[in-house]
## 1
Amino acid sequence: MFNSIKFRAALTVLIFLAALFYLTPTFVSELPDFWKEKLPKDKIHLGLDLQGGMHLVLEVDADKAVDSTLERLSNNLKESLMENKIRFRNVDRTSDKMITLELTDPAARESFEKTLGNHYPDLEIVNSETIEGREKIYLKMNANRVAEVKKMAVDQSLETIRNRVDQFGISEPEIIPQGDDRILIQLPGIKDTKRAKNLIGKTALLEFKLVDDEHSLEDALKGNIPEGGEVAYGLHLDRETGRQTSAPYLLKSKTLLTGDALESAKVQISDRFGEPHVAIKFNAQGSDDFDRITGENVKKRLAIVLDGNVYSAPVIQERISGGQAQITGAFTMEEARDLAIVLRAGALPAPVNILEERTVGPSLGQDSINKGTWSCIVAGILIFIFMVIYYRASGLIADLALFMNIFLLLGAMVMFGATLTLPGIAGIVLTIGMAVDANVLIFERIREELRTGKTPRAAVEAGYAKAFLTIFDSNVTTLVAALFLFGFGTGPVKGFAVTLTIGIAASMFTAVFVTRIIYDYFIWNRKITAISI
Amino acid sequence: MAYMEFVKPNTQIDFVRWMKATTIVSVVIILIGIASIVWHGGLNYGIDFAGGSLVQIKFKEEPQIDTIRSTFKMIGLENSIIQTYGSHEIVVRTPEVRADLKGLEAKIETSLSTAYPAGGFVIQRTEVVGPKVGKELTKKALLAIIFSWIGILVYVGFRFEFRYALGGIIALVHDVLVTLSIFSLMNKEFDLNIVAALLTIIGFSINDTIVIFDRIRENARKNIRMELRDVINLSVNQTLSRTILTSLTVFMVLIVLFFFGGSVIHNFAFTLLVGTVAGVYSTVFIASPIVLLFEKIKPSAITRKK
């Protein structure tokens, strides 16, 4: 069956049509309706370097999540000990993630251990010593739990970032975990990269804390921060002068409510000044808490703190029921919108650091596409002319194969959903060179055979047979290199490996299989007596 | 019918005779290259490997490096590397990695707007690679190159004989070293794209080498009584036409990429140009002598049959 020219030609046409089918959406801007509904409508997928966009690799600082879990545990532990009337002092956290505390009465050790065992299975005693009649105890979170907290932090960050990006409205974002604690983010076509980075990287931990008006702020700024208090700053940007001023606040450290208690957040315009603010609505539990907190603290100031910055600290005029509040602070419309997004999507469980960032502006991408396309066309024309001059009619056959090769390569890329990058275009250009090589090998062999006086039919047969093994071996070895490039390459380099791999496969088909059909047709059916080679 | 031929059939150039001399030439180039790398204190690593930040800016009018440098004083970037890049474009490189999210762009925009009108410049590209990622990328790049060598060694050893595989690999190492040497001598920046180029060179050069090895294998079987030295000469001569033609077409393509491919692809194409020359050269003058050398040490199964 494989000897039949008709069968081989039909197979070739079929494959060619398949490539055409997949490439149509890329080259035709207006697809007919029936096509849009049923048939593949994906265009060739361009890498960020070609279409412009942002590539970010973030590292979730999972240690910080462990720290905050530890802090919460130690606060809870204090309360439990007080409830159980176990006397203690000097609860502290060490730099190597341990909680230390001293039991005033060493005899209380037994009840301490009981409390620990009943309510804090995550904590274990690593060491204890007696100092001046007090029992000093070192506690550590067990390793499984630490690993769990870290994993949760990464998973949750991924989810939160995904939420934020979705709400920001970027088409086809790619957000995938990488390794243990990394997140890869690709945002094609994004223009305002500063804003996107801000949106993604913001921890967005919203806290409500009381302002401490009983102690002196001046004293606190001098270093005398009262027990259970902290100093935080509110940043204010004067839009007219562009100057940023910061005002200090003395707050009570205890967090009364966090962003977890939010149900929704949206941008509203205040009637008086036309300035945007963010209206927040608490969930059921949050509403009750807010109701209680405001009821208990009328005439005190409640600070709204985001990531450690005080946004506003209004005086509570009266008990607020219904669970609604607003965050004000000279926002622009965009800032208010982004703040609403991060509040809705929730806080990151741990801060994230940018490890790698690559941003390509859309004009540079277009420039690269244009230059890449031009290079391909110019190189194609040069090779076309060269082959026809050197090999005449056979050169024309090789050129036809070459054209088909590029066509198949692009079609296959759409089919596999592979990404075309700038080095990828270089890979295509290189494929052009390599495809020509296969035909050169075959033609040189045929010439050699013809020189020994063989008939065209015998020369073509021998030429293909002998050249095939060489082409196969040389292409497979190149493929080996391309596969490692794919395995270890990152970003654009991977794109290069993809085009090279598909290109090698396509060139084996077009340069060997397709050209042979044409020769066989002329030799078998047209019975030509001389080959133009 | 007469063919158009660059190389006449029955050309008999005694390539083997030149092999000693060419090996010395290669060794000298590589030694100079290594000296240059040592003298420069390593390759000129781009931010992909060294970590750091890069910003590419396009100006409406020809930018004045001095003006730009002085505006950079206010953001503490006056000591960064500023290079012109294509026409009306500059690339700013700094070893610093700013962890804060505001990033470099905003700062550069503010500082440049003191000297250029709004719309007079556009930031085209920003890249920031943290030191941790840089180290990983270096490791991955090295692994990619070494594993591709091993993969090729295994495949060629399996399809041919071990000594051929060894000859091929040494030729590849030669190509990579020569390319790196030229790179270091010209003090060009070495980044991820260049690794892709090196791997292409590896793939391409082995392609070339296999074609000749294939002929040697074929000729050795056909002419059992012929000395390996003569078999090699015969094979290199027989494939010479193809070697020249293929290299020429690839070279044509690369020249086009080099001149028309745009600024980003420029270095990539340059590396491939150097590598292709080294690759063709090593195929003829490095890979085959090693096969011959091994023949002297330990005759192969095929020739021992005589």
## 2
Amino acid sequence: MRVATLFLVLVLFLPLAQATTESSWTHEFEDGYITTKPLIVDDSVYVRTSGFWTGDARPVVVAFDVQSGEEHWRFTSQTSLQHDMAPLLYAEQGSGDCGSWQDLLIVGWADGKVTAHSTKDGALVWENQTEIDQIGITGSMLIEGDQVIIPTRTGLSSFCLADGEEILNVDVGFIGWRNGVTAIEEGFVFGDESGNLHTVLRNGSVFSTHLGDGKIRHAPLDTRHGLFVHLQTEEGSTLFLNGSVLASVGQSPAIPLMHENRIYAATSDEWISILCDEDTCSIEATEPFHSNGELALRIVGTEIEVWAHSNTVSGGWGIFNQTAFVRMENSLFNTYGTAAPGFGPGVIAYGNDAGVLKVTSESSEPLDEEKTSVNILGGIHYAAVISLFLFTCWSLAHRDIKQLAKVGSAFLLLIAIAVVPELSLKLAEQTSPNGEAEWNPSWPDEWLGTQVIVFEIDGEEHAIGGLDPQQTVYDLTMIACDELGIETEIEQQYFGAYLVSFNGSVGDGWEFTLDGSRSQVGMTEAQLNDTSIVEWRPA
Amino acid sequence: MLSAIGTHGPTVSPTTMMVLNVILFIIGAWLLIKPQDGKQTWLWPLLVLASLASASRIAMGFIPNVMPVTILAVMVGSKFGAQRGFAFAILVTLASNAVLGHGWWSLFQILGWGSVAILASMVKVHDEEGILSMSQLAFASLWSVPVFSIIVSLSIIDAGMSPIEFGLYLVNGLLYDLLHFLGNLFFAMWFGQWFERLLNMNQPHHQIVQQENGHVSTF
């Protein structure tokens, strides 16, 4: 009976060891884009829409329940008619010289208004007005002490968080766009549309530097070697460090970000990793990529991920480590986009130019309760391995062969379950035959050095190259089919994802080769390099 | 006939699959009904163990190759003979793949576990008195793995696959074969005697008592 119970427990409860929660919901805004990062705070996700508003449509800020997608509250601006590009800002409750405040969501509007809302119900706590020159606030704001620092259209203002009273108002005489502000030791710095960098001291004094002909459309980064600026120019863009040119790169720069000793930037042509060592900062790695909006950083365990929205028709988010492209994160609603994803504990919120918000609870970073349960399971696994090892030693010492067989087999099994999947992947990499796919001379030279994929459907060959680099055969296939207008049907089967048909053609099934060789693994597992050639043919 | 997930096996249309399943089920039923020499009362134990094996295979599907099916095929084959053992393989595969997914591989899984059961009917894990030998069962945990693994791997072969590619496929599976062996060993050591009681569930009580009294693990 005891053994029967043990078996039952094993069969029924072992699946829980891999139980993962992967829930998601989407909300599609009828009007406008999502061009700024959704903000996740506690159990809510806050998102704003942006657009050029006509008729009755107006921009909104909405709070949703992060798990269920239920709408908590919504605030509609009746006066902001231009693109609202200022990211939402959360101010945790506190107090200072100018009073105390509750948890606030600060919103900068394209009509120059600043509104502060209760995070609970969206109630307007205070509002104030900044200068406008056709347009108002479009840059990222920041909190310092009891004030919110706001880059206005023509300068900088600060407001008391408690009541919205204006404390500082500086006009620099130049207009700005997405002119985010950064706090430095001396005060605050921001750029403008004329290539000037302005430093506003806390007493209101202003010092300006002209970097070059171009536009500064991000908050400067305060590195240990001076301010980093990515200047958008007519020809492309220029990286500046402490007023000196670092490098010239592609067009339409994204909003760079800094983490530890690295700066990450992007343009229409590349993703860039810049290393700041003891002496200076210099480009360490670039990857072909097209990103023009916000970048975001996510820390997963000891690894970092830099997320860049692919501002292309195929959309998606490129995920990079410190120096290289890692993979694409795609969704069913991929399209152009510039908004970075918002990250919360175990939650990712994606927004794009189609006005679609998607919030997923990730299996790899479970919510607190799930994380606890995974930790517990991990702990149990660890404790079981240690206990079984000790018990195995004890059985060996006592020459209890029967007991040794039992605990030893359990010990070895637990070890094997932990290591075999990873080892097997390594083995597959080592034993993959090095086939060579043949380059077709009829393919354009622009495809050289990029991933190319070929489909032979109903005797007709469809090929495409020069796409954003993808991580797996599955990713490349999906994006290529999207570009070529090929319909796909995929089923999840016993062995994994199974491609049923291209353009409705099932035939006797489909097979792919990767660089001329059959893969030892499925299409979702088959890894690509930057110049892989994938060929799909009828089986 | 390789399919869209890389190394896979032929695509079988739903109609073909249904026909194949019906044929396999009929074969399984025939193997159960067909008279066989031997005095064991086999029907209920076999059905109970087939249900147990199917349920546990589904429940433990997330750990690749760790399931009690192979060791049960060994025990059923050894206890009830090749015919019932093969029927057991058919029942378990059809039942569990109804959830996990049917395909060309189902046929080879049946052949794999069926072959294990047939071999076990020859290389028995029970002694002449019908008492389970744990050492033989532990040994069967090992030899059953390549038998099953190679037969199931044959399912991926098609006209375009070279022997080297097939060899590489087998090499890539070695670590999972190790996992399969350790899983078999675990189930043998921890649940072997309990499975044996289920196999003997319809035997006259005095015979079980006699066996229990006479049982000394030969491991």
